[in-house]
Amino acid sequence: MARRKVHRRAKKIPGEEPLALVWCGLRADIPAPPEDVHRAAGRARLKPGRHWLHHTGLVLAAVIIIPYFLVEQLMNRIAWLLSPERDRQAQAQARRRAAREANEPGASAAAGRPTAPAPADGVFDGDWSRTAGQLLLRWYVHSPNPRRLLPLTGGRICLAASPGRRLSPTKADDFDIVMEFAHHAARLQREPGQRHFFVRFADGSWLGLGRLADSEDADHFLRTIST
Predict the structure, then answer these.
(1) Could you tell me the strand order of the sheet in which 186-190 lies?
(2) Closest-CA residue to 210 (of 221, 202, 201)
(3) What's the chain's average pLDDT?
(4) The model's pTM
């Protein structure tokens, strides 16, 4: 559950007690906008900013953990190549492959076909000129953190975030509202049984939110928007 100080702050910044709140984030990375759209938005940041400790951890992993893992994999590979079991496994794999190709003559051709790129419909509707697209272009301008606190009040849907790079943004208590929408301008919609939801705007655009933190708050939030 979100810390008590987070609840106190969430009550203070909208000026009323939230009906429900949850820490959430975009369901997927922001897709690359067209060049002219990105340029018109001032080439706004499209990825989160990371705390310096995050980068330190990556450097330590590259220097210590990855070389150790590669050496271990190399030793295992050498041991396998020198083992008589290798030849038996290779022969068995060749027999299985030959049998599969004989039974499914079209399988090899189908496997070589390129897969169609997945659409960006898991994030937003795809129209950068409408509310959801414009919101995405400003998502990391307001805060470099990937997490947003969403307090739902009787008349507003608010998005709040900490202004600085945080290692654990859900534990910060300096967050403030970065965007808000009246209920006539946006509404929350949840697909039954799913742990994500959509913000649907009055102009027909929509934004998918997920990656919910704090399971107790998330359960209460999802129940609230489902009623």
Answers:
(1) 176-182, 156-161, 148-152, 20-26, 206-210, 197-201, 186-190
(2) 221
(3) 78
(4) 0.65
